[in-house]
Amino acid sequence: MVDSLTTHRSVESAACIAASEPSPVDQEKVPSSVNHLKSLLALLCLIVTAPALAQLDAQTMRRDLVDMETRVHREPMQVLEELEAAASLFDDVDSETQLWYLLRRGQAHNALFMYEEFQQDIERARSARLSGAGPELVLWLNTYAGINEIRSGELRRGIEILADVVEQALNIDAQRLYVFAVQELAFTRGMLEQYNTSLQELQLAYQVALKLEQQDLIAMVNDAYAAVYGYMGDYPRSIEYSMKALESFQKLGYREHVASAIQGLASTFRYSGQWEQAERYFQEYLRSTAYAPGESRLYYGNYGLALTFAEQGDCERAVPAIGLALGYDGPEDYDAELLKELAKCEAAAGNIEAAQVAYEAAASILGAMPELEGTSWMLELDYVRSIIAFQSGKPEQAYEILDVYQRSYIEQMDQRSSNRMNMLRAGLESERKDLEISLLERQAEVNRLQVESHQSANQTQRYLIILVVALCLMVLAGLMFQWRSNRRILALSHRDGLSGLYNRAYTFAYLEDVIPRIAVESGGLSVILIDIDNFKAINDSYGHPVGDSVIREVSNMGASLLRNRDIMGRIGGEEFLCVLPRTTSEQCAQVAERLLAAIANHRFKTAEGEEFSVSISIGIADYDSALKNADQLYARADRALYQSKASGKGRITAFTPSLAPG
Question: What is the dihedral of CA 167, 171, 176, 178, to 10 degrees?
Fold first, then answer.
């Protein structure tokens, strides 16, 4: 800003410039902190000399704004005061400089938890003339617009904006912007339980951040990792990443990010039921944000404390804290969480009408957010409703609601488990890619040595070739070892530990995958559902080790009677499912008859040599075009199995339309 003043500077401006421009010799001797102080004093001096600043060169002003980002995070209040004092200087500059001014002012408001002012700055910038602005500046503004949409509850719109920024940032090679947008996007997708996508995107962003060697970006990605793992229920890993982010932000002096990491730790301790730690860190969050005038920090701090009290059943402290949090302006989906806990507390106190009002308010908020459909945010509404019903003297209704909630909760846990497996595979793939990158780096180094030693003796060249071959063999051996390890881990993840058959998740995933191919190829598809009769009596009479032995023997006999392309999985305690692609109903019945006979004719033995027999009941069903998915095909086989059980056990029943539920 200083060098662009015209030659008609005032005496005061000249003095400011002299104070801010040390000679080259001085620059070598004076510490950078002193130079920074001089620059700051110069800026304040220039603000006072407004007539001279009116002639300031816009390009220099823009450069100073671009370079201001680090200060925004370290001293947001001071930066905001400087920008507001110099606001009149930006009235007559070009549109791009004005946009940079609004962006930096918005970032300062954001760092001070003044979210309403932040939103106004970004909206004003985006409504201005963007045609002359650089593409990266426009994308930065769009990124913060996406953040504003998410804070206002428009999750889908916010995700769309951020995803578009990520794509365009890659196109223009704006790597810092790319990492920043990805970690914001991953945080929101993690909240919507899109864990696999979040982790994959964060892994790519982390690699870019490492390449850029920018510690603040690495810390932001770690903070986002912590949030996603916290939502997944992987609390130790969430705490580990939060601690990494907190340490980095403390070293950088990024105050709002320090607070964010502390809040993340507090939330994870709350999720994991470590109430004392959660309360301590939420209190620390409020202390760490005391520098900021914005009320949003008070909302998030009291929100965390309120949920911490409520989730440990301390309604005496929870209800006042909920009221305090709701008195501030916060995200609607967060308000819904507070209202759900308020409904529980009011129901426990016998205030059914107040509980119903709080519940309906929460349901209304979440119902207006279709992005949350199927997530735990919506699922917990049924749990709250069951509590209200029970406290209202309607135990049967409460049980029915709670049963629906528990079934949905179990399905959600199964999905989370699947996501963790995908995460593991992604991690293994990442390690393999790291080896490949290492190989390429070593190869590049060898090539450099070959170029430098081109005029060396042939023997030196032979040594280099041998070195390259050795390195290639080493890396190839490492890759082979990794590949085999991956296969072993993958196989273990698909197998049931007791029977050695495929587990429930893999069996149903295979069935879901094979149905579309069967539909296209017009081949047959049948399933055989098997249940060991009176299995509880076997355990009661001979003991659980004998019961386990029966499961293993039935599994071995069943698998031996199937073709190579058929699979058999253990999907319950004593329940098995066989999937037979390209099989007609007649062929399926023949296989079922062989299974029934083989088990009936087999003599099972206890460890003491006592023999006993076992029977099985079988239900079979065939795929047809009326079925939409694997669950419907399984339901038919289950109805047939139920009929076999009801008809005396030890028999086979094929599904017919008459067995369909009325």
Answer: 10
